[in-house]
Design a protein that fits this description.
By secondary structure, the protein is mostly helical. The protein contains 14 helices and no strands. Helix 4 packs across helix 8 and helix 4 packs antiparallel against helix 11.
């Protein structure tokens, strides 16, 4: 009996030791996992805060008076009168420039530029990728060389042409010349070559599809991720375009947002509060477009990667 009870006690001690050891191992694994997540997410949170700080500071400046903006040390928190200051700056913005009209002008120009660019650049890229014709490589090289020429170099001929056409102070002077740019055609050519097999196009021709029908019904849906990327780049570029609009849009009713905001800068006085209010309002359409297009691009690129 004594030997049996001693054996039971030994077995119990062994079970308890194994339980303690497994518990220690699980705790060690838990700590390792926790440290791994901390090491991963802490830098991400830090960079997210750095990324969003300019937006926060922009909102902060828009809710300050001129004396508060240049106070030393700077105030980095919202105050009790911040909302009232924002309303005051907004009223100043409305009184000094036709901001909402400029916002509608920018939205119309950016939308038209994006839609027309997507159509014509995808059409040009499809032509360069899928067709063989005399002088194709020479034409493509010449087109790529135009990317090396600064746009400012052609501003005088550009202005003379728009004046000759009678397009000064008209939105089409900004979006029609931009509908078939070299970068967009290059991007679409590369995407079509990588995403569309030539056998698919040949099969559609054998089935009796027209050339434009192949492009419209087969090619465009398959290159939608590339269209999404080009559309986002084009919209943001058109929305932020300043120099061309400054040269061609001289009437206040034709101002775009960047030109309208720049008009708030006088020789002796700059209304930073009003400029920041306009900037805060202007950022929202950009963020909306970015969020919408980014989701589409990520989803479709992921789907394409899984299929590949």
């Amino acid at each position: 009996m004594a030997i049996e009870s001693a054996g039971n006690r030994g077995a119990a001690i062994n079970v308890q030791a194994k339980y303690s050891e497994s518990r220690l191992l699980s705790e060690e694994k838990l700590w390792e996992k926790a440290l791994k997540y901390i090491g991963l997410y802490l830098p991400l949170i830090f960079w997210v805060l750095i990324t969003f700080f300019p937006f926060y500071y922009m909102l902060l400046v828009s809710s300050k008076t001129s004396s508060q903006i240049f106070s030393n040390p700077p105030q980095l928190l919202l105050m009790a009168d911040s909302f009232q200051n924002f309303i005051t700056n907004y009223t100043s913005l409305m009184n000094k420039t036709p901001f909402w009209n400029a916002l509608m002008n920018s939205l119309y120009i950016a939308t038209m530029t994006t839609l027309l660019t997507l159509f014509f650049c995808s059409l040009g890229g499809y032509g360069f990728a899928m067709y063989n014709f005399k002088g194709k490589n020479m034409m493509f090289r010449f087109m790529m060389l135009t990317l090396m020429v600064p746009s400012v170099v052609g501003i005088i001929p550009y202005f003379v042409m728009m004046k000759t056409f009678g397009w000064l102070n008209q939105a089409k002077a900004l979006y029609i010349p931009a509908i078939a740019n070299a970068y967009g055609i290059f991007l679409m050519r590369q995407y079509v070559e990588s995403a569309i097999p030539k056998d698919l196009v040949e099969s559609a021709r054998i089935d009796g599809a027209s050339e434009f029908g192949i492009f419209w019904r087969i090619v465009l849906p398959l290159i939608s991720p590339g269209l999404g990327a080009l559309g986002m780049i084009t919209f943001l570029g058109s929305w932020n375009s300043f120099f061309n609009a400054l040269v061609l849009m001289t009437k206040r009713t034709a101002f775009t947002v960047p030109v309208a905001l720049s008009s708030l800068k006088g020789q002796n006085d700059v209304d930073y509060g009003a400029i920041m209010v306009g900037t805060v309002i202007t950022v929202f359409p950009i963020l909306l477009v970015f969020i919408i297009m980014a989701k589409q691009i990520i989803a479709e690129l992921t789907e394409g990667a899984l299929k590949g």
